[in-house]
Structure formats: structure tokens, C-alpha cells
Amino acid sequence: MQTPQKIAVVGSGLVGTLLAIYLKKLGHTVHVYDRSPDIRTVEFSGRSINLVMSNRGWKTLQDIGLEEEIKKIGIQVDKRGIHLKDGTFTTQFYGKEGESIFSLSRGVLNRRMIDLAEEAGAEFFFNRKIWDVSLANASLYEGETEQGEWKELKYDIVFGADGAFSRVRHRMQRQSQFDYSQEFMKIGYKELHIPANEDGTHKIDKNSLHIWPRGNFMLMGLANLDGSFTCTLFMPFEGENSFENLKDETTLVDFFAEYFPDTKDVIPDLVEDFFRNPTSYLVMTKCFPWTHSDKVALIGDSAHAIVPFYGHGMNAGFEDITTLNEMILKYGDDWKTIFSEYQKSRKPNADAIAELSRRNFEEMSSKTADPKFLLQKKIEKWFSDKHPDKWMPLYSRVTFSLQPYAEALAIGDFQNKIMEEIMQFPDIAQKWGSSEVEEKIIQLLNVK
């Protein structure tokens, strides 16, 4: 327990609500503000990409005793299901037997997290627009409009958990020596939907993350508890195969018939979904510092928004909380040191998962359909199974371990250089399981 403080969390998303639970357990008064209505009272907006929880996220939930509670609303996913254009379906298991991620509906999870935060004693204030924050004394300023009259809300500490376009970060950006960058991908996304069968079962394998890889665009699907799938179409905004070219029903139906023929019977509401749901943007943000003195701190997407192709936006945000909690346990009431050490620890790892996520779009949209890439993955798994002490594949390091992201990225790059050399072996497709290849990998691992 710390000396109780009056703490405001701006943002009632997943990171903000979980942080509120942690802070309440430490004995603080916690108020959570959000400019949107209570998500428990509204229909979801058609902008959702399903979430996947992996070891880092489970660790944060475990530490607070919520792991089993959240597992009840998830579906275990142990492999990729690859739908090739010719109708072939193949699977690629993620890790060793028993290793899996969990598919979670963003709306279902967020609603449950708010319930749990309220049960823990956090107070929520919805439809409350926070426009500014005083960095010097942790006061929030709220009002109906940005130009209108504002009311001051006084706190001891403020956390900005208000996403990629954070108002709390916006205030911090106006200080000197604050680094900030924002980058929009040339790729957008649109939510589509596979309904359940009449008996409530899933139309396709619920334990796979389904990918239809098509080069510079792809379709992805993750299962929901109600038998449905949330699907996401990722495409360039402009160009030959792009959102700008899918402007009418005929073009859309012809496009899906050509590139995703096996979806015809499982996405019956394609036209309705496509033209009703918005085309959304993908943005990456980086900044530093994340904190101001002992008064204000950024956490989750407000500090490091990333693209969704590694499935680690939520996991990275939850891991922020793990690190923050470790610093609290270490430094007690010294919030200035807590904040300083928290940002120092997390910044390199946030940058690393941003880079890994950017790269993974190419892997998912192109390489998963490439025989050479699939052979490389087979060799890595074979070698890793024989020598688990010498080799852990990059995906497993990121998803099934707690190794810092920055270390995982560096080791992954080193391993990839080794595999580039191995793939040059004459007749590698025939001799990949030989002692010659095994010895060569061991030799290259010892050259540092």
C-alpha cells in the first residue's frame, strides 16, 4: 500500500480500466474520465479489430488476480489458418504444443473490464470531455467545447490513457524538449463479419487466426464466443487493389469472387457490412518523455500507438502497467522516481514492438503464402525443438515469453541473418533436416 492519492485516469479503454484496478488495490482514490458514452450502453461502431491476449497481457492480469475471469470470455487460438487464392487451406502452429493466444472481442472485454474496475471501487465519469491538464499541479480541465467554459478538477496525479490522439499528451507536446512523431500507414482497414451457424457454432475453425494473404492486402478473421467471427480487411487506400476502387456493389462482389472465393458462403452480409462500416486509419505514434515530474504520466497508446499486425497493442499497454507496478513496489511513495524509471524501462521496448508490428504486415500478407518462407519456419521449428536452449523463434519470444521486446527484436534480427545463410544451402529443401544444416546453424550461432 502507498500513501493514498487522488488519481485521475483519462480514458476508459482497456489500459485505463486495468490501471484503475491496480491503483485502487494500492489504496488510492481513482476517477476515470472518458469523453465517449459508457461502452456498456452502446452498440459497437464497426471499427473493431479483435484482440489477442498473449503471455505479457496474461502476466498483468495474473498479478491482479483476473486471469481466469478474462479467460472465460476468450477463445484459445493455437495456429494461423492460411486461405490461399487457389482454395488451398493450410495451418501453421504458433509455438510448441499447448502454446496459444486468446481471441477476445474488444467490446466484450472492455465492458467486462469496466465492470471489474467499478467492483474494485474506481469511479467512472462518461461523456466528460477533458480538454487540458496542468502539468505542474495535475488539474484537469473539462467542458462541453474546446472554446467554451472549462471547469477545473484537482488531482494529485493524472494518467493519460486516452489513446493515439491523447489530450494529455497534447499538453505535454507543448513543452520544450518533447519529442513526438506520428505516422499514418498507407493501409486502412474495414470490419466485416462472419455470422454463426443457426445452431450457434462457428462456420470455420474457431481455434485458428484466419488469414487470406494477397500480397499488399489481406483479410483476417478471429472467432467470438457467440459463434461469429470479426473479420478485418486490410488494404491500401489508393492504387490497383485498394479501397478507392471498391466503390459499388458489383465491383466489390467481383473483387471478393476473384481474391477471396471461399468467403462467399460465410460472409453473407458482405455488401451491407462493407458499405456501412467506416474505412479506418492505422497510425503509429512515438514520444518522449512519457512523464512530467511526479504529476502526469502517459500509458498505453497515448505513449506508443502501434499497428495491429503483431497483436500486441493491448499486450504492450498491459505490460506498461506491469512495469509501473514493479516501480511502485520498489520505490514506494517516490512518484518522481517511479515515473522516471518506468519510462526509462518501457521506451526502448515500445519502440521495438512498434518496429516488429510494422514488419509483421509483410509476413502476414505475403510471406505466409511463400513456400520458401514456410520452409524457413519449418527449419527454425525443427532446430528449436532439438535445441531449445539455443534457439527460440522470434514469434515465440514476443508472444510466449516475457523477454523485453528490444532484446527479442535484436536476437530475432541475428537469427534471421543466420537463416538467410542457411536458405542459400544447395538443395536446402531436401537436406534441411540433416546434421550438416544443424551443425552449420550451431556454428553461426557461435559467431557473434
Automatic annotation (TrEMBL):
Pfam families in the cross-refs: FAD_binding_3
Keyword Oxidoreductase: yes
Keywords: FAD, Flavoprotein, Monooxygenase, NADP, Oxidoreductase, Pyridine nucleotide biosynthesis
Keyword Hydrolase: no
Function statement: Catalyzes the hydroxylation of L-kynurenine (L-Kyn) to form 3-hydroxy-L-kynurenine (L-3OHKyn). Required for synthesis of quinolinic acid.
Listed HAMAP family: Kynurenine_monooxygenase (MF_01971)
Record-stated family: Belongs to the aromatic-ring hydroxylase family. KMO subfamily.
Name the UniProt record assigns to this protein: Kynurenine 3-monooxygenase
